[in-house]
Amino acid sequence: MSLTTTLSSPNLLPLPHLSSHAPHRTQSFPMAAILRHINPIRRRSRSFAISAAVRQPDTTLWTPSPLAGVKPAAESLFHVTIDVSDSPDLASTYTVAGQYLQIRIPNVEKPSFLAIASPPSVAVTNGVFEFLVKSIAGSTAELLCGLGKGDVVELSPVMGKGFGVDQISPPEDYQSVFIFATGSGISPIRSLIESGFSVDKRSDVRLYYGARNLQRMAYQDRFKAWESSGVTIVPVLSQPDDGWAGEAGYVQAAFARAKQLYAPDSTGALLCGQKQMAEEVTSILVGNGVPGEKILKNF
């Protein structure tokens, strides 16, 4: 039996195949015919709502700032330094390692979200924000990496809570701190390490840093300084070159293999990078008794 309905409302348009010369006679016809007339109206309403949302004005406060330099950091990664010396109010809002902002290139519609790689003190003393940017084909980041000194970009206000290291303080109570980063996720980790979080008062601070190979691993020139501050660095390569004698595979697997002893109640962790890595590391730590609120992310 076909689904039919009865219409008698004068507000509905007559359908082409129905007789219009009997106004007092109630007509019966398939529901599909009604939907063919109603659905275009709904689609137009939905399209109008979406268009209206797209046309909302951008209320972000953008600060024009010149590039101080762009140079290679590793394969597909670039150091980008932006001069904020003429914008002390913007520079002073960067207070916690792990915070980020948006960078917009004039005449390019879509901005890019980037974590600030330099510690907050550099913004005050040197008047710059430093970033580690991965150049992805067709992205705003790729255009940014192709700019040069003096080119002007626009910066949003600094955003985010950053790494809440107060959750793993005082250091005497959190002797073990494990840090995990993959790819360009090392950017805010650099800020964390160089900002200092009382590493010298902790007994075991380790950085597990994953990349495809050494050519894709940024900040190798900073490793000695990080280690001298008390951070043990464990590079992990997923596709190492022949002759690599270090950890191979993925960060989470390398951490699981290490089987280091740590007291869960006095352990903290910080993560930034690939989603699966973060989820699996979190699962390992929580499974071993580390409280979830002691596993920190910057987003």
Strand order of the largest sheet: 6-5-8-3-4-7
The best one-word shape is globular
Biggest sheet details? 6 strands, antiparallel
Radius of gyration: 28 Å
Q: Termini separation (Å)? A: 56 Å
Classification by helices and strands:
alpha/beta
CATH overall fold name of the largest domain: Rossmann fold
What is the domain total for the residues?
2
Mean pLDDT: 86
Query: How many beta-strand segments?
Result: 14
Percent range for helical residues?
Answer: 25-40%
Strand composition percent: 25-35%
Low-confidence stretches: 1-29, 48-53
* Assembly context of the chains: single chain
Order of helices and strands: EEHEEHEEHEHEEHEHEEHEHE
| CATH homologous superfamily heading of the largest domain | Nucleotide-binding domain of ferredoxin-NADP reductase (FNR) module
**CATH architecture grouping of the largest domain:** 3-Layer(aba) Sandwich
What is the top-level CATH class of the largest domain? Alpha Beta
Number of helices: 8
Protein name: Phenol 2-monooxygenase (NADPH)
InterPro entries: FAD-bd_FR_type, FNR_nucleotide-bd, OxRdtase_FAD/NAD-bd, Riboflavin_synthase-like_b-brl
Domain FAD-binding FR-type: 60-165
Enzyme class: oxidoreductase
Describe the structure.
Helix content is 26%, strand content 27%. The chain contains eight helices and 14 strands. Helix 7 (251-258) packs parallel to helix 8. The model is unreliable at 1-29 and 48-53 (pLDDT under 50).
